[in-house]
Amino acid sequence: MSNHREIYSQTESGGIQLAGGVDRWQLHEDYVHLAPHRSAAELLRFEAELLPFVDRPAQQALVIIDMQNDFLEPGGWTDASGLDYRRCREALPGVKRALEIARERDLWVVWVYWSNRPDLRNLGAPTLYSFKHRPSQKGIGEQLEHGPVLTQGSWGASMPGELQALMSEDDIHIEKVRMNGFFGTHLDQVLRTQGIETLLFAGVNIDQCVTSTMEEAYFRDYNVVLLEDACATSSPDYCREAVVFNTRNCWGFSMTTEQLAAAAPWTPDAPNQNGADQDGAAQE
């Protein structure tokens, strides 16, 4: 059996191998290599928590979740529910920076957002109850000043104009009907067919739709990266803190958009010149 198929084997560069085949990582004392079978010329080092990581930007995508009027704008659902929509707007500067970086590096940009059927037949009672805890509370599909909540084609389900102006015709749009952006959508198929392995997460609410989609990505063996300053929530601060803690300790990595922008070309520690595994796996 080839060395690159032996889980927990010692690599010649001094790391420990995690998993086998082309999805393997190498764990070192001071960084994690997410693409050891790739040429060093393709790689950048990202200063993240808990550990920095090395990755190939060509396999990354920026996933922006629920940056919609109902969460971000006055008169939207968050505002009408008595929550502070301005806290959700705190994600906007980071999302814009992440978009700028994504354009510079030619990353795929994936917009994931609520788009429910007007008749609400896609939603069961548990999901409806999640957002309507009292008879007087406005739930998904009910009328507000600007139209029905998070309904396909509505003002509330649309992105603010300042984000629409930053969209590209090549961007991918995924309409969802649950907090989890993978549930009942084509998100997984789109990512797989484009060769995406690492997902950079941004959006709102960090403790609900962002984290549930991020956890599902982890369950599906995507490399998960949370962009902390490109996410926000109207929930209490401890909700956000729990997501950041769990991302760093369970699901993957977290960093700021400043750290994303500052990623530097990777200089391999291993003696071979192309930066690939010593077992010749770059030929795969």
Automatic annotation (TrEMBL):
InterPro entries: Isochorismatase-like_dom (IPR000868), Isochorismatase-like_hydrls (IPR050272), Isochorismatase-like_sf (IPR036380). Residues 61-259 form the Isochorismatase-like domain. It comes from the Bacteria. This is Isochorismatase hydrolase. The keyword Phosphoprotein does not apply. It holds the Pfam family Isochorismatase. GO terms for molecular function: hydrolase activity. It comes from Deinococcus proteolyticus (strain ATCC 35074 / DSM 20540 / JCM 6276 / NBRC 101906 / NCIMB 13154 / VKM Ac-1939 / CCM 2703 / MRP).
